[in-house]
Write a structure and sequence with these properties.
alpha+beta; seven-stranded mixed sheet; three-stranded antiparallel sheet; 33% helix; 6 helices
Length: 229
């Protein structure tokens, strides 16, 4: 069954979206308070709910901002609990942004989560253009508890013809843990060591203009594109 995407237009809609997002990131702070969503959509923000029948299967909240002198839609949080719904939401985001004359969509994601890298680089064709160490500070939700919130900043043009050029320098394959979320629960020290090692590679590389837009064929590593020396 395909998901039905509806815009958040009322307080009730905002309450439903907020509650859904909180259920995904359980045990942590409130992800997107309903009153913030209400205020934001009043001045042109993006907020949607995806339903299959009467059941909420996904949702997203973002706001319009600027990045590198471009107007962008920053997708602050997107979640789906049914396979395929996340992709449908991202396609809706792209159409919505294009209709608003917005040139690109941005968002953050954890570079240690393999499935996120597969989705963002392979399925969507986004490019990571910034590395943000401990961007959200300490997080307490059931997914991220105990870890530091290092994030990649993804850039996804609404016009695919405007995709960023890739640096022509050296390519470096960076292996990722098989399942960082399980590792956090079973061996937090080991998860933090993965975080430290990858930060030591990515942070200096991105500071001089590196990007990531792909993974290795077996999807066990991301491919870092460094600028030409």
């Amino acid at each position: 069954m395909s998901a039905q995407i509806t815009q958040v237009e009322s307080v009730r809609d905002a309450e439903q979206l907020s509650a859904f997002l909180n259920s995904v990131w359980s045990d942590g702070s409130e992800v997107a308070p309903f009153d913030l969503i209400v205020a934001a959509i009043h001045v042109g923000a993006y907020a949607v709910i995806a339903k299959q029948g009467e059941q909420i299967a996904g949702g997203s909240f973002g706001f319009v901002g600027r990045f590198n002198e471009q107007v962008i839609l920053h997708s602050h949080v997107t979640a789906a609990t049914v396979a395929g719904v996340g992709f449908i939401i991202k396609q809706h985001q792209k159409l919505w942004a294009a209709q608003q004359g917005i040139s690109a969509i941005t968002w953050t994601f954890d570079p240690l989560v393999r499935r996120n890298c597969v989705f963002n680089f392979e399925k969507l064709g986004a490019t990571a253009v910034e590395y943000l160490p401990n961007f959200y500070g300490a997080m307490t939700d059931s997914i991220n508890a105990g870890d530091e919130s290092d994030r990649l900043f993804a850039y996804w043009p609404t016009d695919l013809g405007a995709k960023l050029e890739n640096p022509s320098g050296k390519k470096i394959e960076i292996a990722l843990p098989a399942d960082i979320e399980t590792l956090r629960k079973q061996d937090l020290a080991g998860a933090l060591e993965w975080r430290r090692q990858i930060r030591e590679i990515l942070q200096p590389a991105f500071s001089i203009g590196a990007t990531i837009h792909s993974m290795t064929e077996d999807r066990t590593a991301i491919v870092l594109n460094t600028p030409e020396a």
